[in-house]
């Protein structure tokens, strides 16, 4: 349960390394794979992830470094707004109106999963207020710092910080989502 708890924290972020095709905006879809590391003052954990974003849904799968699936989060959208979220972990499936509620119930932490489809790409969610400071920006109480733009347009490293929580996402592969 401890690994699942931290893996779900990592659910909020996601990714590490090699873009071959230009990506479409989140409204059109993308896919990313990588590793996420989550650290607080008392805990640290790492998980592998796969994120598939289409206009209608995001599917985030988290697994251990050895490949065992920890959880799968599905977020459904209508006209760009979240309408529901479902979390499968083990033999259990839970649903809620928003993904943050699911993660809060499972891990006890409030994580910014809703912003991740933008933040993974180094962009603020245009629907929400944000403050830019150099290459970083702050949105929804999180400091987002995207770096390592190997192809000039997509980050391969994203770091999120808030209070004593630090999340590092390393992208290993970016691709366009199949329609």
Automatic annotation (TrEMBL):
Alphabetical list of InterPro entries matching this protein: LolA/LolB/LppX, OM_lipoprot_LolB
Keyword rRNA-binding applies: no
PROSITE patterns: PROKAR_LIPOPROTEIN
Pfam families documented for this protein: LolB
Signal peptide (residue range): 1-19
Bilayer topology annotation: Lipid-anchor
SUPFAM superfamilies for this protein: Prokaryotic lipoproteins and lipoprotein localization factors
Keywords tagged on the record: Cell outer membrane, Chaperone, Lipoprotein, Membrane, Palmitate, Protein transport, Signal, Transport
Localization: Cell outer membrane
NCBIfam families: lolB
Assembly information from the UniProt record: Monomer.
Family per similarity comment: Belongs to the LolB family.
Name assigned to this protein: Outer-membrane lipoprotein LolB
Gene name of the record: lolB
């Amino acid at each position: 349960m401890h690994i699942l708890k931290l893996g779900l924290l990592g659910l909020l972020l996601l990714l590490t390394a090699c873009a071959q095709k230009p990506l479409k905006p989140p409204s059109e879809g993308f896919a990313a794979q990588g590793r996420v590391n989550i650290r607080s003052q008392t805990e640290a954990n790492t998980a592998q992830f796969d994120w598939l974003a289409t206009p209608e849904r995001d599917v985030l799968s988290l697994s251990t470094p050895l490949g065992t699936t920890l959880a799968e989060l599905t977020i459904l959208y209508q006209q760009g707004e979240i309408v529901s979220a479902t979390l499968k972990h083990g033999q259990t499936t839970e649903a809620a109106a928003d993904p943050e509620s699911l993660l809060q119930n499972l891990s006890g932490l409030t994580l910014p999963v809703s912003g991740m489809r933008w933040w993974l790409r180094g962009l603020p969610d245009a629907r929400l207020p944000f403050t830019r400071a150099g290459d970083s920006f702050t949105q929804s109480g999180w400091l987002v710092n995207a770096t390592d733009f190997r192809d000039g347009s997509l980050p391969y490293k994203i770091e999120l910080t808030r209070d004593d929580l630090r999340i590092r996402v390393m992208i290993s592969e970016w691709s366009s989502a199949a329609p």
